[in-house]
Amino acid sequence: MLQNVPVKSFQFGGLTIEGYSRAAVQTYWRINELNLGFDLGAHPWDFMGTPTWLISHCHLDHIAALPSFVARRRLMKMTPPRIIIPAYAEVAVRRMLDSFASLDRGKLPCELIGLEPGDRYELSRELVLETCEMSHRIPCLGYVIYDRRRKLLPQFTELRGEEIRDLRNSGVEVTREVLVPLIGYTGDTNPQGLDRNPILFETKILIAEMTFLADDHQLQYIHKNGHMHLEDFVARAERFENELVIASHFSTRYHRKEAEKAVSLSPQGSSEVTPPSNSGPVDPLSAGVNPRSIYLHIPFCRHHCGYCNFSVAAGRDYLVPRYLAALGREIAALPQRLTLDTLYLGGGTPSRLEGPELLQLREALAQRIDLAPNAEVTLEANPLDVTPAWVAAALDFGATRISLGAQSFRGEKLRLLERDHDAAGIVRAVELLKQAGLTVSLDLIFAVADETLGEWTADVSSALQLPIDHLSTYELTYEKGTRFWNRRQAGQLAEQDEDQRSEFYALTLERLVAAGWEHYEISSFARGGASCRHNQVYWQGLPYHAIGAGASRFLAGVRSTNHQSTLRYIQLVEAGVDPTSERQQLPQPELARELLAVGLRRIGGVNAAEFEQVTGRSFAATAGAEIAELIGWGLLAEQCDPPSTRLRLTARGIFLYDAIAVKIAASN
Fold first, then answer.
1. 606-607 β-sheet, strand order
2. Is the separation of the CB atoms in 164 and 156 below 8 Å?
3. Residue 529 forms beta bridges with which residues?
4. DSSP three-state, residue 260
5. Among 77, 29, 76, which Cα is nearest to 53's?
6. Is residue 276 helix, strand or coil?
């Protein structure tokens, strides 16, 4: 077959990735099995049969071959191609094609589709496209290709094939749609393009630009011109969940061998794993106190919801066996046997673990951990996962408390939040859990775009009608790096203003307190004494351990966090290396201010004597001037708590907690 331009080829996971990229020269990639390609700076003759092309931006090294590609397909009597481009360029590209058609005295037929950042587009029955806003000198789209699958709903997994067939024939929906991130493509971008689109770190295969390599380049100029350096990849190494990363678009100043050498000599290019330094003095705060609480992170999810910025591994359940083995190794490496008052499995979605997997985790914990009498053991769960079989497995694990990610009872709101359950699923899950004698907590989100106070009232009322023991209510936040952040930036989601958000919160307080619920923390309500004991450990500044990818612990006055990347965490533990990626030892005065700010989340406030016992500092020595100012403003109050005093938020201060916490934590 005639080849008029260079082509590199990679075989991975049943896919063939072919193409080539040189900065300012030409960029073109295609995945033959998926019938699609990225950018048309040039095109090999063999690429003629690929009918769909995704153009990242309109610099000539990425789009120059578009007219000839369309013309050649017409010449070969092939169907007009489908070309997807940034929406702003649609009119100009159409004019360009019309101009070439006029010069050619023929037609250049193609389906031209303009998309905005954050758009979703159905490429085929099996593939769904999502656009990402990159950060280049001109507007640029990145692309994520999802493999669309149908999975049997959990409540039907125990049925026989003929029973499932009969349900389907009767019109019952027995499956759910699952989108697995398969291919990521950045086009040209600086690191902000990656950081604001974390889904790119989760695709099975990522094709990313890495224009510069040499040590003598200045990153600020590289980033200003919308490109990335090898150092940008090294700095984010722990975040890459991808099984294959293809770095491309190298500057013409580098020979191929120079690029290979630079990558091989980088810290992440080496096969040797170096453990992080563990040296340095230990702060006396909490020294010698064995933690009586552990947080254990389970990162697996069906789908990475658009508002979520937690460390998750969506659609990567094939990693579960290796991850559980890694957890077992990290647990076995604990320096001493621990007795726990609280154990919390968060995520992600811990309810993704099935019976045998929970049993394996329980056995690993039992090697180094004992549970105290009446210990609180919490598992977070998705309503759809709560089946009789899963509830039995959770009880065998030792669960006493389940935290359900309900978020809403309203179908439209759940779809906006990208949740896969409905109101009936929440009710069914609560009934199963309560029948098993478990304490049940619900999470709800308020102030979603265009949500009314009446709609939120209905959500709260629906929760109060259920036999739950605990309720956590959270304002929807738009965290940088999430899809919701990108959609808000693109004008696709409208954020409620500060006054509106305060009205939602005020209504929440009014309804729940009137119903007899205890408001014991900014976002948390309990009845019957069912407050979350594990979270109280955080708010009191007590030591706690943490295990798993992205898990953060607080021991002997030091905060440390494991690598965020699930795959990188597994690799480190398998290599016998400490998976810690960050370690921060705050000076004692700064740590005391932080603990005071966090402690004020509790509606009961902070006891002065207990605070001094933990930190070795009084309120006055910690943030005396700021406390006095906040009391004068009516945001904090001191009350007698014999034989000491207590500092707490006032009714007005509760609404301004974030600003109060910042002021105290930043005081000198």
1. 606-607, 644-649, 636-641
2. yes
3. none
4. helix
5. 29
6. coil
Phi, psi of 558 (to 5 degrees): -120, 130
DSSP string across 492-515: SSPPPPHHHHHHHHHHHHHHHHHT
Query: Poorest-confidence range of 73-87, 232-246, 253-267, 379-393?
Result: 253-267
Peptide bond into 81 cis (omega under 30): no
| Beta-carbon count within 10 A of 255 CB | 10
Q: What is the spatial distance between Cα 268 and Cα 247, in angstroms, rounded to a whole number? A: 13
Q: Are 354 and 390 in contact (CB under 8 A)?
A: yes
Rg (C-alpha) for the chain, rounded Å, is 28
Q: 108 near 141, Cβ under 8 Å?
A: no
Spatial neighbors of 653 by CB under 8 A, at least 6 apart, are 630, 634, 635, 636, 637, 660
d(Cα 515, Cα 468) in Å, to the nearest integer? 13
- Nearest Cα to Cα of residue 441 among 314, 507, 308, 532: 532
Residue 510, amino acid: E
Quickly tell me which residue has 């990188």 as its tokens.
Answer: 568
Give the SS3 label for residue 155.
helix
Question: What is the pLDDT at residue 266?
Answer: 56
List, in sequence order, every residue forming a beta bridge with 547; answer none if it has no partner: 296
Beta bridge partners of 300: 313
Secondary structure E strands in 600-651: 606-607, 636-641, 644-649
**Residue 292: closest CA among 344, 228, 333:** 344
Question: Of 435, 348, 356, 428, nearest to 396 (Cα)?
Answer: 356
Name the phi and psi angles at 525, rounded to 5: -135, 140
The model's confidence at residue 282, banded by pLDDT at 50, 70 and 90, is very low
Altogether, the residues listed in the chain come to a count of 668
Q: Where are the alpha helices (H) located in 225-344, listed in sequence order? A: 230-235, 256-265, 320-332
pTM: 0.69
Q: 514-533 b/e with 16+ CB inside 10 Å = b?
A: eeebbebbbbbbbbeebbbb
Mean local confidence (pLDDT), 221-238:
89
For tokens 């497995």, the residue is 393
Q: Please say if the pLDDT value at position 480 is more than 80.
A: no
Position of tokens 């965490």? Answer: 569
Nearest residue to 237 (alpha-carbon basis) of 250, 247, 227: 247
Q: Residue 1's pLDDT is what?
A: 42
Amino acid at 595: L
557's CB contacts (< 8 A; 6+ apart) are 282, 283, 284, 285, 286, 287, 585, 586, 588, 591
User: How many other C-beta atoms are found inside a 10 Å radius of the C-beta of residue 261?
Assistant: 14
Q: pLDDT averaged over the chain? A: 88
**With bands split at pLDDT 50, 70 and 90, how would you rate the model's confidence at 277?**
very low
| 119/309 Cα distance (integer angstroms) | 19
Report whether pLDDT(283) > 60.
no
- Which residue carries 């193409």 as its tokens? 19
pLDDT in tens, 7-63: 889 888 889 999 999 999 999 999 999 999 999 999 888 899 999 999 999 999 999
pLDDT-derived band at 271 (thresholds 50, 70, 90) equals: very low
Would you say residue 443 has pLDDT above 70? Answer: yes
